[in-house]
Write a structure and sequence with these properties.
Blueprint lengths: L2 E6 L3 H10 L5 E6 L4 E3 L4 H6 L8 E3 H4 L3 E3 L3 E5 L4 E4 L4 E3 L2 E4 L4 E2 L11 H12 L5 E6 L8 H12 L4 E6 L9 H14 L2 E4 L3 E5 L4 E4 L4 E3 L2 E5 L2 E2 L29 E3 L13 H19 L11 E8 L2 E7 L4 E7 H18 L5
Parallel strand pairs: 1-2, 1-9, 2-5, 9-19, 11-12, 11-17, 12-13
Antiparallel strand pairs: 3-4, 6-7, 7-8, 10-18, 14-15, 15-16, 20-21, 21-22
Helix pairs in contact: 1-7, 5-6
Length: 358
């Protein structure tokens, strides 16, 4: 009898797991995903910067998933009884469940979300209408990719070379493993004339007077501001999350607590170092595919090493490349090679999601 795998979420990580496991004749794979469309999330920066088109960042979910797809919302994952409950009232039993549902950003009134196509389009409109002098880019809390605010700042500096661009960063000192990334991004910022203020934890934003105040009482004026917001798992996973609002996993096995058949991958896990990127979600997906098949055939467990990577636009046709795992990290660039690599990957991404590449 076939073992049942339920994948919750049909984004980057979920699609890779589903499509690769669907090739195994001993598995019955089902994906629960409510959206008809799949978005290439790193491409939102391209849209804001005017260097990418919306249609390049979207594909139909049906064209990418090669496993059984149920278009519905999950309301609960019952890990004790191996059951996934759906909004429709249906429930699905599983032998293995992979939770790859992504996260939700806390909404901040007056500021668009960074990681959606609609949010990116609104940010582009705001940038298109910018006629002032001061632009502030920042974030608070735990966000998806800490390199993203730098990348956006660099793109905006290229677009508005005469503007005063300030990046406010709540992290006073990055973790040791992230220092190569912090150093190269800081170097690029200095070369471009982007001011970086570390340890600036946002307390309040006065939208009427356009003032951002820190917890220490420091104030910054702006004419245009883009603020990324903290992430958390959806309410449907409230029975699984820890105090961070994310699902706790063993970082070497990506399993939830002591449940050998419950995996969580991508943004929804409580792993924060390496940071949350599409690449670590990809590598996590590949690891889980191998783990489920190893378990199926009694071949024992492996260990996930935390591999993550990202290419970052650094402005003016150049980019930087960052790699890290749990033990080491390095950063390269800026170079036109990494700009080309990042633009190219936006196209190959779709092949990776289908499980046809990497």
């Amino acid at each position: 009898m076939k073992k049942k795998v339920v994948v919750v979420g049909g984004g980057n990580a979920g699609s890779i797991v589903a499509n690769k496991l669907a090739k195994n004749a001993d598995l019955e794979v089902t994906v629960i995903e409510p959206s008809e469309y799949h978005y290439y999330q790193p491409g939102t920066v391209d849209i804001v910067g005017g260097i990418g088109k919306e249609e390049e960042m979207i594909k139909n979910t049906s064209d990418l998933l090669h496993a059984r797809w149920i278009k519905n919302y999950v309301t609960k994952v019952d890990v004790e009884n191996h059951t996934v409950f759906l909004k429709s009232g249906d429930k699905i039993d599983y032998d293995y469940v992979v939770i790859a549902a992504g996260v939700r950003n806390i909404k901040l009134e007056g500021f668009p979300e960074w990681h959606t196509i609609e949010g990116a389009k609104l940010m582009k409109t705001m940038a298109d209408n910018f006629e002032g002098k001061k632009i502030v880019v920042g974030y608070f809390g735990l966000i998806k990719c800490p390199a993203a605010p730098f990348e956006l700042s660099f793109i905006l500096k290229q677009r508005f070379p005469k503007a005063e661009i300030t990046l406010i960063n709540p992290v006073a000192q990055p973790p040791q493993i992230q220092k190569p990334m912090a150093e190269i991004l800081g170097k690029i910022a200095k070369e471009l004339g982007v001011q970086v203020i570390r340890g600036f934890k946002i307390k309040e934003i006065d939208r009427q007077n356009k003032i951002i105040e820190s917890e220490n009482g420091e104030k910054i004026n702006y004419d245009l501001a883009f603020i990324d917001t903290p992430i958390r798992a959806g309410e449907e996973f409230s029975n699984l999350v820890d105090n961070s609002g994310l699902i706790p996993v063993n970082r070497e096995t990506l399993r939830f607590k002591d449940y050998d058949n419950v995996f969580a991958i991508g943004d929804i896990t409580n792993i924060t170092t390496p940071p949350k990127t599409g690449a670590i979600a990809h590598f996590e997906a590949n690891y889980v595919v191998k783990e489920i098949q190893n378990d199926l055939y009694g071949q024992g467990k492996g260990k996930f090493d935390g591999s993550a990577a990202c290419a970052v636009y650094s402005g003016y046709g150049k980019g930087a490349f960052i790699y890290m795992n749990y033990e080491k990290s390095y950063a390269l660039g800026p170079s036109s090679i990494f700009f080309i690599a990042k633009k190219t990957f936006a196209h190959i991404y779709w092949l990776t999601v289908e499980g046809k590449l990497i």
